[in-house]
Structure formats: C-alpha cells, structure tokens
Amino acid sequence: MGELALTPDPDASTEEYRAEIAEAVRALARSRRPHQGFDPAYGGEGDVGGVVAAFQMLGHGDLSLLVKAGVQWGLFGGALQALGTARHHDRYLRDMMDGTLLGCFAMTETGHGSDVQHLRTTATYDADTHEFVIHTREPGARKDYIGGAARDARMAAVFAQLVTGGPNEVSQTHGVHCFLVPIRSEAGDALPGVTITDCGVKAGLNGVDNGRLVFDSVRVPREALLNRYADVSPEGVYSSDITNETRRFFTMLGTLVRGRISVAGGAASATQKALTLAVRYGETRRQFSDPATGEEVVVLDYLVHQRKLLPALATTYALQFAQNDLVSQMHDLQKPGAEPDEERQRDLETRAAGIKAIGTWHATRTIQTCREACGGAGYLAENLLPALKADTDVFTTFEGDNTVLLQLVAKTLLSDYGRRVAKLDLAGKVRFGADLVAGTVLERTGARSVLRRGDLRDPAHLRRLLVDREEHLIASGALRMRKALAPGADQFAVFNGAQDHLLAAARAHVDRIVFDAFAAVADRHPLLGRVLALHGLSVIEGDRAWFVEHGYLTAARTKAVTTAVNALCGELRPHARELVDAFGIPQNWLDCPLLDGERTRPTEADEQHADTLTAVG
Amino acid sequence: MGELALTPDPDASTEEYRAEIAEAVRALARSRRPHQGFDPAYGGEGDVGGVVAAFQMLGHGDLSLLVKAGVQWGLFGGALQALGTARHHDRYLRDMMDGTLLGCFAMTETGHGSDVQHLRTTATYDADTHEFVIHTREPGARKDYIGGAARDARMAAVFAQLVTGGPNEVSQTHGVHCFLVPIRSEAGDALPGVTITDCGVKAGLNGVDNGRLVFDSVRVPREALLNRYADVSPEGVYSSDITNETRRFFTMLGTLVRGRISVAGGAASATQKALTLAVRYGETRRQFSDPATGEEVVVLDYLVHQRKLLPALATTYALQFAQNDLVSQMHDLQKPGAEPDEERQRDLETRAAGIKAIGTWHATRTIQTCREACGGAGYLAENLLPALKADTDVFTTFEGDNTVLLQLVAKTLLSDYGRRVAKLDLAGKVRFGADLVAGTVLERTGARSVLRRGDLRDPAHLRRLLVDREEHLIASGALRMRKALAPGADQFAVFNGAQDHLLAAARAHVDRIVFDAFAAVADRHPLLGRVLALHGLSVIEGDRAWFVEHGYLTAARTKAVTTAVNALCGELRPHARELVDAFGIPQNWLDCPLLDGERTRPTEADEQHADTLTAVG
C-alpha cells in the first residue's frame, strides 16, 4: 500500500484535498484490496476479517482516505451486501467494489443521531406506481454529516420509516428500512427532488465530503428496498420473518457491525502512530541537566514523561489484541457459508460497541498526550500529530456516540444477568440474595481485601480484581434498576439516577474483556508479561478509589499499585522503542522533522562547544 | 470590540488567514486599547490589569488574533517595556504601541524550549566596534515557533547568552539577556545574516505566522541590549546589580509574567465559550424518549450529560475568580509607581505558573468534552468548537510547558516549606518531627477521617480537605527530597522517583488557591454557593483515592462525595443557562447553526406529525 502513503498538503484547499482523496479511493479500488471482503460469487474473496485488518493498516496513513474507503466499501457496500438480496447484488455489487458506483450511507438525521430507531425520513409505498416515495417531512429529518454526499456519491443507502397503506386505507409504519436512492447524475448534479448541501470544513477529515440530503417526494422503484429482512409486495403488503419491529431493526443494524469494528481498528492504528512518534521523539529530546553529570537528560528518562506515554502504550497493546479477537470473531460469523448464530452475533455486537467506545476514547486521550509530550514540535502539521488528533476526534461520535454505546453494553449486561438470575432455582435465588447481603457487609468492613492479596503483577490476580469490579457493578446495577419495576416508579428517574453506575459497569466489562484478550497472548514474548501488568495495573490505578470504596483493596494496597506502575514504567523504559517498533508502521509513513533528532544527535563538535559554553558560564 | 468579532473563513488559505489577522491587529492598534497597559509617559494609561482583562475578552473571538496581539503587545512590547530603559522606550515604545513597529519574541530554540536558561544563541560583545554579534552557533540554537517571525515582524526581542571578552582575553558568559534585533526590512525582506523560515501549517492558530530565525553573526549596536537589569560598558565591562546569574535571569523572566497570565485568561475565555455553546445546545437537543411520557428527553436532563458539563462549568467559574485575583495582584505590583516587592512578585509568579497550567489543561479537557457533547454538529467548523479546540491546544505548551510549570510551583513550595521549618526553634523542630510521625500513624489507622466529618457542601469543610492534602503532600514531598541531600545520594534518581509526588503537591496547592479565590466571592449570588460546592466536591472526587489512602476520608465518605456531586448536578441543571449567560459572551460571537434549535424548537405541527408517526408505528 506504499502508493497510499499520502502526505496531503496541509495548506491545500478543501476541494483540492477532497479531490486527492477521491483519486486515492480510485487507486485503492484498482488495487482490488476492497474486493477481498465481498461475496466470491461477485468477484470478491469473502475474506471479511482480512479486509478489516487491511483497513486498519490504512489508519497508519491518511485518515480521510480510511474514512472515505470505509464509507464506500464498509458502510455503503456493507449495507448493499448484508441488507440487499440477489437483485441488488447482481446489479450493483461489482460496480460498488470497483468504485464505479460511489455510494454513501444516509442514516443519521439532523434530529436523530443516536436514536436511529426514530428517524423521521419516510419511505411511503405507492401501490399504484409500485414505487417508494422518499420524503424529508421536517427539518430535523434532513440526512446530516453524510460522508460522500457533498461531492462524490451517486447513490445513497437511505434509512427511512417504511410506510404502507395508501390514501384510502389506514397507513402503517413498519420501522426503519434501507433503500437505494440515486442522488446524483453521472455529471455530478443533484437529481430532481434531492437537495444536497455541504457540511463544509470540519475539525478534521477534510478529505471526506460530508453533506446533507433533503428528499422532496423522491420516487424509487419497489426494488430499491434492501429486502433481505423484509419486503413489500407489489400490492403493498409488508412481510418479514421478524415480527417484532424493534428486533427487526436491530437485526438489520447488527449486520452492519463491521463499521464499528473498523472504526476501533482505525483508532488503534492512529494511536499506535502517535505513540511511535512521541516515544521516538522522547528518546532523542533532551531537556534540563542531571546535576551529577551536567548532561542533559533525555525526556523519556523522566518518570512523569514515562507516566504519560508508557501506560498508554501498554493499553494500546491490550486494545490491539482485543481488536484482533473481535475481527476474528466477526470473520467466523460473517464468512461465506457461516451458520447464523444469534447468541454469538449478539456477543459480537456488544463487544464491538464496548471496544469501539473504550478504544476511541483512549485514542483521543493518548494522541492528545502525545501531542503535548512533543511540545511545540507536536503542534506543527509537518510532524503529523495535528492530523492524527483532528481526524480521530470524531471517532468518539460516529458509528455510535461512545456514551450511548456503553449504555447499550450496560443494557445487554443487565439483561444477561437478569436471565442468569431467573434461571436459578429457589435455593439459588436465596443464595444469590444472601450473597448480596454478605456483599454489603464485606463492603462495610473492607474484609474483601483480605481475599485480594497476592503478587500485584500476577495476571490471575489482576484479572480477579477486574472480574470483581465487573460482577459487583453489574449485580448492584441490576438491583438499582429493579426499583424501576416497582409499581408507580418513575422509570426515567430510576434509570437516570443510575446512569453513571451503568456506564461504570459497561467500562468494567470492557476492561475485563480487553485484559483477557491480552492475557491470552502475553506469553508470546518475554516483554509482554510486564506490558500486560502495566496495562492491568494502570486500569486499576485509574479506578483505585472504587476498589477501596468497595472493599476489594485496602488503601495501603492501592498505594502499592501506584508504586508498581512507577516501577514498571522504569523497567519498560529501555524497551519503549522496541515496543513501538513492533507496531510495524513503515518508516516512510512516519518520516517527519520531529524524528530528525534521530539522525542529528548532537555531534562531538556540538558537545565540545556546549562544554566550552558551560565552562565559561 | 464588535469589529473584532472575526469569523474567518475556515477554508481560507494560510496566507489569507494571516493577512486577515494582521489587518485585525492594525484595527486593534487603531482602537488604542493595547496602549492602555503601557507607560503613561509614552501615551499609555498604565492600566496593566485592565489591558490583561481586555485581552481576555479577545479570547471570546478569534484566538489567532488573541495570540498575535499577545505577541505584539504582551511579549514583544512587554519585554521592551520591562527589560528596556529610556533609550529603548524613547525610540520604540510609541511605534510598538501603534503597531507601526511589529515585533516578535525570540526566546524558544529548537533545542531548548523549557530549559531557557540554557539557550545556545550567543550575543558576543565586540569592544572594537561597540556591537553585539548575534549568532546561532549550532542547529539546536535556531529560534523556533516564533509567532510573528514568518511574515510580519520587523524586529525580534532575541534572548541570547551574553558573552564579553574578545579574542585577546578569556571570554565570559553572563547568562541569557534580551536584545533588540531588526530582522526584516520595511519591504519585508530578511535582513543580511538573518535566515527566516516558516513553521508552516499548525494544528491551530493558523492566523499566526510562526517562524524560525537563524542568525549568522548579525551585528547590532551596544544599545540593543535591553539593559534594565544589566549592562555592558562601551569598553566591554559587564555590570549588574544582581550578581547571581541564575537569580538575574529569573528576575528578568519574572517581569514577563504577564504573558503567562494572559494565556490563562485566554484559556478561560475559550472554555467559557465552549461551555456556553454546549450547554445551550444541550438544552435544545433531544434524544430518546421518556418511557412514561413518550416525549424525547432534552440531553442535558441526562445525569451523564450533566456530569460532563456541570462540574467543568463550576471549575470554570472557580478559575475565572482565581484569574481575577491574579490580574489584580499583578496590577498592584506593576502599576506605575508601584514599589518593588520581591516576595509578592515571587508569589505572583508561582500563582501565575500554577493557574496557567491547571487552567489550560482544564481548557483542553473541557473543550474536548464540549465538542463530544455536541456530537457530529460539534465537529463542524461552522459551529465554532473545532477552532476553539485546535487553537487552544498549544496553550498547555507555550508560555511554559504545563508539567515544567507545575515543577516550578513544587520547587517554590518545597523551598518555602524548608524556610518555615528552618525558622523553627529546637522545640518546634521536635514537634514538627513528632507531627510527621503522628501523621504516619494517623495515615495507617485512618483516624484522621474522624476529624473530617461535616457538611460536605460547607466551604470550610471542603477547604479543610484541600488544605490537608496540600500540606500533607508538601511535607511528605520535602521529606523525600531530603534524601537527595544525603552524602552520595543520586540527586537525579531521588528527584525523579518523587516527580509525580511533587506534581501532585503543586496541583493540590493550585486547587486550594483556586478554591479560595472562589470562596471569597461565593456570597455574591445565591447560586454561587452551590457552584462552589460542586467545584470543590468534584476536585475532591477526582482525587478521592488519595484522600482515602491517606486517611482523610473514609471510603463511605468518598462515596458520599460522588452522591453529592450527582445531587448538585441535578440542582444546578435548571440554572445551567443562567450560569453560562453570566459569562457575558456577546450573542454575535456565539451565533452559529448549532444554536438554531433555540429558534426552531419543534413546532406544534412537527409534534403532531411525530405523534402520528408514533401512533401508527
């Protein structure tokens, strides 16, 4: 992918940048790499996991290209493949893969970003003409932030409330479905009834042409409905194997989980690149002298600098292993011929939501820290960090707002928990009740911590703590939510009062999953054990108040956690370069003046001059 | 300042943007507002505090203008005024104030950003010609990131090692001093011996022309030395009233404290603007329905959304009051005719360093949170948050890297503490020793917390906790640092091992100062008491592990802190709009599509349609 190592001119106009990215998308299509993920029957390779992994590699380069490719082959192509049927595949799949049909994914509306089940665009079936009428019925129903809409896309996968029943019968809404709607002529003009506007300049990702779509009774044939999960007969009769509307909608959404996983992968790549730059700079940059030697100290030798970068590096390792698991789990479920498995699909969606949220927040925080760790140099566009920061910022928002995603995770955790409890026999329920009471007592006396002694670096010990926290937060969260079921309870008030608790439970769950993914491979290299320990300990340190508050650690023990984090920072410091090199980012994707110090360490002549200067001072 | 409410085209080229900002700087000069801060003898008004407060107002507008103005009148003008003498003032002060002489402030070098005492540029006195020779002796001595250097500045205030003694005698270095060096002709060309390059596009602040300066034996007259604190006679004899080189250097630096205070002010303004946007958006944006009513919930009614914005809002209030104190303290010390007061000056510098660090980190974090709280809309340039975020990012770095500044604060705290202890008589020292031992015991038993019961919202109680933490961290930090004095100790290792401890002490100190500044005015409005409590409690909550670990709070008590933060979020929610309106940002500086929802709340017609849609669904 060397040809895709774009270094866009940071002073290019938006139009120039968009044009460059559009050209890169065409180059990517020519490479036939995107074909890899699609149905072999249409010239693809069915390697769903491989394409997501390749997509992640793009994240080491220009992120506008990553997102633009993600829109074309992940979102638009993904909807076409997963929600469409042969009639759509036959007609569009090859053109979509080849990039001769550029598409966009028109889900989000101005008024509904997170709550997409309640989108307001309508697709009303007209049985007389056998057409759907796509219509923007209010300002808030405008499709917004749609990547590809402002400049390049010819067709949109439009999500809209499907309405049947004409003027003479009662109309019926069947929930949100996806429709293929041409929006632009080959010449690039908006088609009749479609109003396209440009979202303009953004904080980042300016190579992507985000736009807005308003539909004024735009007619598309009945076949425009992507009808894998539901269909409308020519006469206007709606049918679906999934009778529950909500379940149907979330089944459709679930097939699109690849987008979320891809964003997590892109965030991981960007974080790895930022850390590579900051660690390598930190190994050459010197500031202030050691009083004993008079020599200026390399900044990565300072504890506080290590603290900024090394725990984040350890967590980046952990997230990459979790991402690998996620991708292979997805591959198993989506590869050609795979048997549908509802439970594993549900688990995949929960993991994807959680890892996307935790991973993109980690990216935003870590890239910011890396920028600061590189000082003024980190602020210059030529040193790559500004684009990494600006481009990844919206990752916490798109493909699902992180807070909303964690709520989704929490909801699943609580309902799984509820099912587990419901399955208990009477004796089990009594024991379960007793456990909770005993739990409260333990919490008050701090006696639990007696059980939580052990080597702080031992993965089993760290895991135990993470599991304790996860289980405790889920069980106590479930208890709080039970109140919402009491007669006369204000459900919203109960939920809202516990919202921070539920998010904490979701985080604890994701932390444990991520830790497990890392622990499973930590014996592959002698260094990894310590990286795992640093990751686990820094997660625990970050929430150590919780462990003390709930009696899982004593205050003395949490102090030892901090001491252990510091010690591990010191131990891993000599290996920092090796650890970032292992991310395997090609050097030409990293070249920038920030790393010039690696070539121009002070020469002997400089040193002599410096000595003279100090001597005469 | 209505005319300065710039809304630069986000798609303008760098050159267009720079030109627009340069024009705005001229407009600002014509307004004669910058004159306000300078010596009345030269047409100023001597209102040092007023000008810094006015500068902060600029922070509600375009931040490139803020920084460009800060370079001209704060840094360049400030150096000229504070380090120069009549010979410089007579010749340049009026032109500088009028903006007919545009200057830059050339301190930072590629190799030395934080450790400016060890800059490598030299200014060697040539007694034969009565000139200083300004020279860049190595690549790392290049002046870097200099605002104004790339395009507009005609003159630079250059910081360089002053060297006397010619080829026939031993040369002597007297430390860093400041020199006025012309760098560009009136036509805009670099002068002979001066090589100017452009730092190019940055993550933000692209209306500011940052550049690099390399001097090849550039000669300036002897009088170019800003000689308020030191001079060189025509014969080449160096003299200064301050004999200690380090003390002399930091005395000179200290006079420039205004820059740091101004950055803190700019960060405060930007934070206030971001919060105003996010709170107002959060009051109109609706997402997901209340199951009881079916109505979509305003996002600011969600606990987690309140948690994101309201504690940050409370801390923004606290920081503004601390900033007000800082500005008035500076005004008292720097106003015309003020008596020099070394102790108060030192205190001012420590406060300025601390509040700049804490305030700019708060800005970076809060503006990021506000962007995320506005979802996709927050990512669009038209909604102002992207510029706020990108432009303020470097505030954590320039005018002193925040980590280095906090270290400076810690150093002062420890040496003050050392002096206090040294003054104790023998009995006092014994008691002091006993205290520390007793402290350790208390820490182990957690008995201290008995003393720390009380109303969690009571300012006196909150203050006591903040003072406890500050004093504990300073005393125990001092104890650790004492080890560095032991014979044979590795000073660097001792310091480095305690670096995180020292930074925590500095933070604790700044937190207490900021709290005090707020507490002193909290009775001015009935709401402020609760805002103060939310600020104090959220600071304590953020570090609650520390309070438990050191026996100042029980685990049960820290849980109560979290509960109290949640409760206060709920109580202040109805007042959120009032609280951001009180920042007084003119509406035309806030106008953007993000706030359109305030005008276009769903109409009755929309609501009816929505009901219909729900009813038929």
UniProtKB/TrEMBL annotation, chains A, B:
Tell me the ranges covered by the Acyl-CoA oxidase/dehydrogenase middle domain, including all copies.
104-218
Domain spans labelled Acyl-CoA oxidase C-terminal: 471-594
Can you name this protein?
A: Acyl-CoA dehydrogenase family protein
Q: Which organism is it from?
A: Pseudonocardia oceani
Which top-level group of life is the source organism from?
Bacteria
Note the Pfam families from the entry: ACOX, ACOX_C_alpha1, Acyl-CoA_dh_M
Location of the Acyl-CoA oxidase C-alpha1 domain: 254-414
- Which cofactor does the UniProt annotation name? FAD
UniProtKB keywords: FAD, Flavoprotein, Oxidoreductase
